[in-house]
Design goal:
Helix content is 48%, strand content 13%. The protein is an alpha/beta fold. The chain starts with 5 loop residues before the first strand and ends in a 7-residue tail after the last strand. Bound molecules: nicotinamide-adenine-dinucleotide. The site of nicotinamide-adenine-dinucleotide has 29 residues, from helix 1, helix 4 and helix 6. InterPro entries: 3-OHbutyrate_DH (IPR011294), NAD(P)-bd_dom_sf (IPR036291), Sc_DH/Rdtase_CS (IPR020904), SDR (IPR050259), SDR_fam (IPR002347).
Length: 260
């Protein structure tokens, strides 16, 4: 389905991003990975994708908090592959603290990685998509792009911001064969959430089990974590021709969280 297409997924060395990259590779796309982690793990993830799905992979170590590095990543991908058909802005970090104790440098970093990076990738990738007459932008926002929770001021601000950015870009490209949408996952059990379970346990002074039951899944009426595969499947659908009329949407994958 995606043979000949190039999908660039930021923050794809782990968790949801890696799941999305694998979902595109499974359907024949060349995937450009990005993110941090031990070189050996990244090399292993790449060769697993190449062997399992018979596609080409590339990797950029660009730091999504560095606009110049983002520029080099987009330029290199466009030059090497001649196209960027699908851009998934997924890289993201979290920090949990009351607003009065929220470290200003953490605020800046969360806004830079979770929001500003998407401005830079979109700004630079859109001309490449226009040149090839096709484009799909998928921003991994969050249920926290639609509703708030305490102790996550920077994250909620950034995620609400990216939902607004998604709608604006969608309107700007509405008459072109390019769409821009946001996926709003509820809780997915990834390293980011594992870390949060520890942080929330500290903030609330309760056990990890209690955090999962009474804090995280208390929000999620389905009482189960959404899965990386479910998010990947939606990213693939939004990037298909069948989804040509879906643009400017923020789609929850949250077990009913934002329904109540
Ligand atoms: P994760 O920590 O497992 O993965 C994050 C990825 O981003 C990793 O590949 C990491 O290397 C990369 N990354 C971090 N900082 C980076 C930087 N400065 N530059 C480049 N890459 C960087 O997290 P995840 O849970 O898979 O989260 C992925 C996205 O999904 C995030 O935007 C997150 O906010 C969002 N999200 C996650 C959940 C959840 O429950 N896990 C829910 C809603 C939204």
């Amino acid at each position: 389905e995606f043979e000949g297409r190039v999908a660039l997924v930021t923050g794809s060395t782990s968790g949801i991003g890696l799941g999305i990259a694998r979902a595109f590779a499974a359907r024949g796309a060349t995937v450009v990975l990005n993110g941090f982690g031990p070189a050996r793990d990244i090399a292993e993830a790449r060769s697993a994708i190449e062997e399992e799905f018979g596609v080409e992979t590339a990797y950029s170590d660009a730091d999504m908090s560095d606009p110049e590095a983002i520029g080099r990543m987009i330029e290199t991908a466009a030059y090497r592959h001649g196209r960027i058909d699908i851009l998934v802005n997924n890289a993201g970090i979290q920090h949990v603290a009351p607003v009065t104790e929220f470290p200003p440098d953490k605020w800046d970093r969360i806004l830079a990685i979770n929001l500003n990076s998407a401005f830079h990738t979109v700004r630079l990738a859109l001309p490449v998509m226009r040149r090839n007459g096709f484009g799909r932008i998928v921003n991994v926002a969050s249920a926290h792009g639609l509703v708030a929770s305490p102790f996550k001021s920077a994250y909620v601000a950034a995620k609400h911001g990216i939902v607004g950015f998604t709608k604006t870009v969608a309107l700007e490209v509405a008459e072109e064969p390019i769409t821009c949408n946001a996926i709003c996952p509820g809780y997915v059990l990834t390293p980011l959430v594992e870390q949060q379970i520890d942080d929330q346990a500290k903030v609330h002074g309760i056990s990890r089990e209690a955090v999962v039951r009474d804090v995280l899944l208390a929000q999620q009426p389905s009482k189960r974590f959404a899965t990386v595969d479910e998010i990947g499947a939606l990213a693939v659908f939004l990037s298909s021709h069948a989804a040509a009329s879906i643009t400017g949407a923020a789609i929850p994958v949250d077990g009913g969280w934002t329904a109540h």
